[in-house]
Specification:
It contains seven helices and seven strands, in the order αααβαβαββαβαββ. Strand 6 and strand 7 (185-191) form a beta hairpin. The chain has helices at 2-19, 22-27, 30-36, 56-62, 74-86, 124-134, 161-170, and strands at residues 45-48, 67-71, 92-96, 109-115, 135-146, 174-180, 185-191. By secondary structure, it is an alpha/beta fold.
């Protein structure tokens, strides 16, 4: 059992190092995102692809509503659980799940945060429909993604600003904010109608 855990932990070291890095926080901090979101104290938020809780924990500290941390990776969710217990944050609910079926009631979520995860989902349209199902009318989907680099050797999967805009509008959502935050990091907020 210990060997499996050690192997699993080693596998996550690179991802965790990036997700928790000071460079990432300097580039775009959770506070900067929260300032751009139309949050009310009682809102319920889904952090889709929550990872290590980079946005989950600050959201839960700011809100009285529930912050649902959904991730496919149970080890990431355990990191969030540990941090929430250490920081005595009671309003986080962990959900291990997939993008094709979000186990939340329809119209139960005020906002969804999807940071650096949508480019990994194919077909994205099914997940956008899941988002629309769980979002309240007027609720928002907050997307952070990286614009693909033009270098021929760029192998990382990415979704362009224009493609994400097209897919969001095609899903029936209305884009209410879009901007580049750095040379390649962009923010897009869509409202459920």
């Amino acid at each position: 059992m210990e060997n499996n855990f050690a192997k699993h932990t080693h596998h996550h070291n690179g991802k965790v190092a990036y997700l928790e890095s000071a460079a990432r926080r300097a580039e775009f901090s959770p506070a900067q995102l929260l300032d751009r979101m139309p949050l009310r104290k009682t809102d319920n938020v889904l952090d889709f692809g929550a990872g290590t809780g980079y946005f989950t924990l600050p959201l839960a500290k700011k809100l009285e509503g529930t912050v649902y941390a959904l991730d496919i990776d149970g080890a990431m969710l355990e990191m969030i659980r540990t941090k929430a217990e250490e920081q005595q944050i009671p309003n986080i609910q962990l959900i291990q799940g997939e993008s094709n079926r979000i186990p939340l009631p329809n119209a139960s979520i005020d906002h969804i945060v999807a940071s650096l995860v949508l480019h990994e989902i194919h077909p994205l349209e099914e997940t956008l429909q899941q988002f629309r199902n769980v979002l309240k009318i007027g609720g928002s989907l907050v997307c952070l993604e990286l614009e693909p680099k033009r270098a021929a050797n760029e192998k990382a999967p990415r979704i362009t600003y224009a493609e994400l805009e097209r897919k969001l509008e095609g899903s029936g959502m209305r884009i209410i904010k879009k901007q580049f935050l750095t040379d390649d990091l962009y923010l897009m907020i869509a409202e459920n109608q």
